[in-house]
Amino acid sequence: MYMLPRSLTTVTLVGNRLVVGDYIYYLFKATNITCVDISGHHLNYNPLPHYAPQAVVQSTSLFGCFKSFTGNTTWTINVNEDFVKMFYSQMASSDWADIYDKEDFNFTFKCRCDRMHASGLVCLSADVEQIKWGNSHIYTKIYPMIICANKNLRSIDISGNILYMWEGPVLGLQHLKRLDLSNNYCTYIHDVFFIGFTDLEYLNISKNSLTENFNPASNKYNVDKLFQNSKNLRNLDMSEVKINVLARSVFQNLIKLERLWLDQNYLNVWSAELKTFSLQLLSIAGNKFTFLPENLTTYLNAQVTKHNVTLNMSYMSLECSCEQLPFWKWLSTTKVHIRADKVYQCMLNGKPQRVKYLADFIKFVNTLEHVECKDQKWITWPISGSSALVAVMLTLFISTIVYRNRWKLRYVYYSRKRRYVHAGFDRLFSNDAMFSYAKGKGKLYQELRRSFARAHP
Q1: Which residues of the chain fall short of a pLDDT of 50?
Q2: Which of 96, 134, 186, 430 lies 20 to 30 angstroms, CA to CA, from 159?
Q3: In whole angstroms, what is the distance from residue 263 CA to residue 51 CA?
Q4: Cis-peptide into 293, omega within 30 deg
Q5: What is the full DSSP assignment across 328-345?
Q6: Would you give the distance in Å from CA 357 to the centre of its chain?
Q7: Using an 8 Å Cβ cutoff, are 195 and 105 in contact?
Q8: Residue from 286, 280, 239 nearest 261 by CA
């Protein structure tokens, strides 16, 4: 390290296969180097095994012990041999959560790198600003780690590895601005992993499998705490992280968020609440949304009055029904810049409606509003009244017919229900004749009876 020329500022070792050696304890002596790129190693193992923690023995008074390394009026931690020993041998992740719950985690680390301390710390060059170590197939967890870095370190890219669990915390990178952890096959992020990145402005965790972190039914659900110390975050990329639900409070601490990418997930309902007043881009392309709720569209309208806002909703299968009419009307009137690549049609009553071009879109919204979803409540009363009138007329008509034929009906009734069996023969009546008459026709009955008696003495 002593032989490097002072004019050397960029070191690129892409595609090589470096192995761990004593030289790593002297990295802090490589002055003037601002950019280091050691990507593409294809290691398939953990290159820094000695940074993994030892067997954990939790301390019952760890919070008080932790505060003993700080000053009385400041949260500056003096990293010495005793603190390194406690950090790697006594502290568990639950201890960090306990410390963080008690106070805001906004520590400043005061490190001194030399050969004695370098074995327990990651000591970086005093002038380094950017580190790239991506696509190297590094296979390990991200264990608790102390990094002694200068205030100039702004960007770290360790994407494209196999960092399958991010346990942390990683302390000493409070001045870091940009962190890329994408495409690492990570399946779980611990509550306290991000607590040391207090100044972070850009975070890329895309292309990981974070279902358990975001699923409320999982016992590993922790999104309420995940970004609790990320109040300076401005850009968050959560594309392709295999999530199907967003809790309402997931972004509650991201009060400076400007750009949010949620592309290519399985989201079908927007339930998150955005607290930032600086949002410029919301990208939800490739999700399963069929429409966006009113609380989100109202929020976007409020933001666009202050600055330009872009909503990317490409590659989505939208539904065009009367229930979603407010959403479609919002799309046709909002000042938010809408990107809708490959959204050529929507479904109306099971039939596709073309919305590829602006003219198609305007025509469809007009049809939806004035034809399909037109208020037709006024038709209800005439239809109900007509139905009632028809029912009354049918009742009167049937009643009249029954009344006029009442004696015939009575005769049919008696002929069917009052049959008489005599001497083995089935006879209709017990007598030879039967008269059916109304009370007012008694005289007619008497005349018929006498006439019948004279004819059949």
Answers
A1: 54-63, 71-74
A2: 96
A3: 35
A4: no
A5: HHHHHH--SEEE-TT--E
A6: 29
A7: yes
A8: 239
